[in-house]
Amino acid sequence: MDLPRLENILLRYEGESWDLIPVLQDIQDSYSYLPKEELQVVSERLNVPLTQIYSVATFFKMFSLIPKGKHQIKVCLGTTCHLKGGGRVVESLSHRLGVEVGYTTKDMQFTLETVGCLGSCAQAPVMMVDDKYFGRSTVDKVPKIIKLYK
User: What pTM, to 2 d.p., does this model score?
Assistant: First the structure.
């Protein structure tokens, strides 16, 4: 546990239960996930039961209870992207990275996820790495895209 880092986050708030979601967002931004030990401290400081914290953390997709990689890869599997080959892009990424959807590579470089929509149907199939969109993605383009982030 990195108590000084957590303290810096908690000092930004009043220490009330209504601070829970912003505190969790700051922890997620700082650690790339919500570490168990830090959540126990948050529970004590905000006087919020740990079960409630886990309910919030598992309800919102923006939170993760497992460590995320340095680069977040999201592949759209909405209707248009699915019909235009999004599933094949996911399979290619999974094979090349050696990781299943929802998990992080052993070297902590990449986390592979699927999403219902990235809002770029005209560019289907679409994938994102961090904040950059890659439209009209194909199995052939996957190695080049991954290489940009290695």
Answer: 0.77
- Residues 51, 21 share a domain: yes
SS3 78: coil
Burial class (CB in 10 A: 0-12, 13-18, 19+), 137: buried
Express each pLDDT in 89-145 by its tens digit.
999 999 999 999 999 999 999 999 999 999 999 999 999 999 999 999 999 999 999
Q: By residue range, what is the domain housing residue 98? A: 71-147
Residue 44 has pLDDT above 90, yes or no: yes
Rounded CA-CA distance 140/29 in Å is 32
Instruction: Give the pairing type, strands 127-129 and 132-134.
Output: antiparallel
Angle at 142 between CA 140 and CA 145, to 5 degrees: 125
Contact between residue 73 and residue 93 where contact means Cβ atoms under 8 Å apart? yes
65 in any annotated domain? no
